[in-house]
Specification:
The protein is mainly alpha-helical. The protein is 69% helix and 4% strand. The protein has eleven helices and three strands, in the order ααβααββααααααα. The longest helix has 23 residues.
Length: 235
């Protein structure tokens, strides 16, 4: 579902069985991250350290290190005498995260629109193909396919910006926002998408117009939040 997670790679749990070295806490973290983002562990669910240890055949030390890292990224929360839980994202935080996402998307779009012409044209072509895939998902009323391709559309722009700090911040932010969408995605939605907005963004990038691209992306993300507040939809 997430474009920065390789869908063709082995799962973290299979890698864990083959690797026993200093990266063990990271592999445990990746396994838990996959389960959280995939909806297997849902907001409010308690993460049992003994269960994780038994399932992955590891001690509590790497599990605790992995949980601390996930807590620092805002995906889980530790409660004294209760344990560690997948975080519930409240509406106020969703609003704040969307405001930050609008800034990041706008910045990424502005950078992408300043790429050399050949790179812009290549990016624009990839984005047009992505928009077509989203339109196909809308036609078939496939919420998950639309959502997945929408994430890829925006990630293509973020990657094109060529800023590693931006990429790291964007991944963390979108993963937090995903926690607020898991319930909606699992039960399906009447999709009200923004295909025309995506097309306008592609046109601005292809034309090499940084100001227009920034404005369109920021407005697109803001509109997505307003739609989400009324009726949750993929942004």
């Amino acid at each position: 579902m997430f474009p920065w997670l390789d869908p063709d790679a082995d799962t973290a749990s299979s890698r864990l069985r083959a690797v026993r070295d200093t990266s063990l806490p990271k592999l445990v973290r990746d396994d838990l991250l996959e389960r959280i983002l995939g909806g297997e562990l849902r907001p409010g669910d308690r993460i049992s350290e003994p269960d994780v240890c038994a399932r992955l055949s590891v001690s509590r030390v790497p599990v605790r290190e992995a949980l601390r890292e996930l807590e620092s990224s805002g995906l889980v929360v530790s409660r004294k005498h209760a344990g560690v839980f997948v975080r519930r994202i409240e509406p106020e935080e969703v609003r704040d995260l969307y405001e930050m996402r609008a800034l990041l998307d706008g910045f990424a779009g502005e950078k992408a629109a300043t790429l050399p012409q050949a790179e812009r044209e290549s990016l624009a072509q990839a984005l047009r193909e992505s928009t077509t895939t989203m339109a196909d998902a809308v036609a078939s009323k496939d919420v998950r396919d639309y959502y997945t391709e929408n994430l890829r559309f925006h990630w293509l722009i973020v990657e094109a910006a060529g800023n590693l700090a931006l990429r790291a911040s964007y991944r963390e932010l979108v993963q937090k926002l995903h926690l607020s969408r898991l319930r909606s995605l699992s039960r399906g939605l009447a999709m009200r998408t923004s295909i025309q907005e995506h097309q306008q963004i592609v046109q601005a990038i292809d034309a090499g117009d940084p100001a227009a691209t920034r404005s369109l992306l920021a407005r697109h993300v803001g509109d997505a939040h307003r739609r989400l507040s009324a009726e949750p939809v993929p942004a």
